[in-house]
Design goal:
This protein has about 130 residues and is mainly alpha-helical. The chain is about 55% helix and about 5% strand. The chain starts with 5 loop residues before the first helix and ends with a helix. The mean pLDDT is about 95.
Length: about 130
Amino acid sequence: MEVLPRRFKRLLYVSSVMGLILKQIPETSLVDKINQKLHLAYGAVGMLFPIYIGSIIWRSLINNVIRLDSGLVSVDNLNPKELSEIDCWRTGLFFARNTPMWLQYGSDDLMAADIHDMLMLLEDAA
């Protein structure tokens, strides 16, 4: 579990969730905006590989559902533009609690906060 440095785990975690939710490689300007706020990598290009492999890291969760204000939503159907702030927290907690052991870098609350912040930035970018 301690093989990967914490900073690298955080980069993989947040970027891979972003890739899973967006279902595509986003424009570099969006990645750069998120990176400037969350300080994940030295540049936006460093986030592209984890974004690209997000569906591989989280493939066991794709058919799972998250309880949101609007009801149950499958992970595969999450849309950051439709999430309220509380739904961003619920989504963050879902991913934090279902993170593979090798990718955990902090408490569930800390990891949920990173996903919450990323989702809020995605929502603002829309």
